[in-house]
Design goal:
Elements (H helix, E strand, L loop, with lengths): L1 E3 L3 H13 L5 E3 L2 H11 L4 E4 L7 H10 L8 E5 L2 H5 L2 H6 L3 E4 L4 H18 L3
Parallel strand pairs: 1-2, 1-3, 3-4, 4-5
Helix pairs in contact: 2-3
């Protein structure tokens, strides 16, 4: 699991929640670092904020979904980002597999990630 969150406290909270839920978690603090880590690690899923410095979560997702090395990685966006609330379909158009608004419930995050990972495994060739 790769967690992408520029807010240190928020990132640590996601890391704690996901670790407690049984995920092995890596982290990135911006979109460019996340893209590099995703290519190197090929995680089972990416949890990303949409409002990030440099390349935002929308662009990160677009790049992940258009790169053959990372296209099958499910992306869960978590956001309190204002423009998202005005146009929630923007995340879907960028390629996000699911979106949860902040504040998020840890159980909702874990459940959504497990569902996305299982769906992705079902799509991958054997």
């Amino acid at each position: 699991m790769l967690v992408v969150e520029d807010d240190r406290d928020g990132r640590l909270l996601f890391l704690e929640w996901l670790s407690d839920a049984g995920f092995r978690v890596e982290q990135a603090h911006n979109g460019l670092q996340a893209l590099e880590r995703a290519i190197d690690l090929v995680p089972d899923a990416v949890l990303t904020d949409l409002h990030l410095p440099g390349i935002d979560g929308y662009e990160l997702t677009r790049r992940l979904k258009t790169d053959a090395r990372t296209t099958s990685i499910p992306v869960l966006a978590v956001t309190g980002y204002g423009p998202f609330t005005q146009d929630p379909s923007r995340a879907e158009r960028a390629g996000c597999d699911a979106v949860l608004p902040k504040p998020c419930d840890p159980e909702d995050i874990a459940r959504t990630l497990n569902t996305l990972i299982e769906e992705a495994r079902g799509r991958r060739p054997a």
